[in-house]
Predict the structure.
Amino acid sequence: MKEFSTVIPDVIVINEGERFRASVLIEDGRIKRIDRSPAGEGGGENDLFLLPGVIDGHVHMREPGLTHKATMESETRAAARGGVTSVLDMPNVVPQTTTLRLLQERYALAMTCPDGQTGGTGRCHVNFGFFLGATNDNIEEIRQLDPSLSPGVKVFMGSSTGGMLVDREETLRQVFRHSPTLIVTHCEDTARINANTESLFKREGTASPPAPLRGEGSSSLQFTPPLEGTGEASIRLHPLIRDHEACLRSTELAVRLAREEGARLHVAHITTAQELDLFRPGDNRITAEACVPHLLFSDEDYDTLGARIKCNPAIKTRADRDALRRALSDGRIRTIATDHAPHLPSEKQGGLKAMSGMPMVQFSLPAVLSLADEGVLSLERAVELMCHNPALLYGIPERGFIREGYRADLVLVRRRPWTVTKDCIESLCGWSPLEGRTLGWQVERTWVNGRLVWDGTGFPLQPQGERLTFCKP
């Protein structure tokens, strides 16, 4: 007797460069059969499109230690509503995930149902994996990492918080030499950032940059750019402090070390046209990620959105944004992710004092499909960058594709314009930089491991996400 079965009838499947009409049978959490329609693709304004579930390789769920702004439950709920069926979470939580013990503890936490919950598999509505973080003194932890336990080792090569900044070349070389798995880097040159900060604050007549705001504060969104001459550090300085040269220097170093040590390297959130020249289409050992905010926004948007779009690396020029968009189709960008990083509204106040990062996981797929409607890339390429390539890059077996026998992580979408409003936001932080923006695609349903976790109006089941395992591609 089968545990459960579902038929998804008469949809247009977009998968592995093809577009075809079919019905899909799910049994026991897997894709049992794909029945192609002899009528071909067809087409109509009410058509439903079936895609593999998105694998977001760059999120910050904030748990443990920062649950005042986000939790595993809230952020994976946002992911499920947005058609994201697997997330890979970064190590800069509290305590930072920099030992094998802490890595196992995070998995144990994710697989523990909250008090009072029954019928779920843990805290996560979608599948999950956790990165191990590099520090200046945890090389032995990295050497002993079982590659099946983690999608990769995250290395913050630029200005970061706590003890996770690794910018000494010899320490970096040890990580690149001994990591048994993929290395994912945040590339910004700290010396350049510090020099820019000192120079710009002297020019602006401010003695020193303000510290980030902390604490909960008001939940009201009041993002007024600072007035000139008030002494408050303007958000417009952010891309000048974390400038093109800071990114390029660090990315050049990462690429050089990867080539010299034979490491597998994935550079997170590329932001500049110059960095793109360091990557070669078809190179499976040194690859690059683009994040949705850098594909949507440019520095022109600081005037209207202020610190809502403050992130590290910074949003840069329209020319950089357009270069990133072109690189989606020429092979230099391997994956699209979000760097989903929720903060409370109060933490996004005050120009340069605001915390860096923005919530994006719920809206990444509709936003990228809307870029496809603008001619930035094809729908087939969007699926490759958001579903197929992350599965291949991180070595996630039996996911990321619509294939018979694979796990049934699927998303049903429709062309239907809608406007992002506060009342639709699932992230615990309660806001989005996309509020008021109209997107051209809507997520109708999301299946995780064959179970319907978002039905278009709500979440019919307790969290059904599973711990991911990884293999070397």
Observations:
- Residues 267 and 288 are 5 Å apart (CA to CA).
- The mean pLDDT is 91.
- The first helix runs from residue 72 to 81.
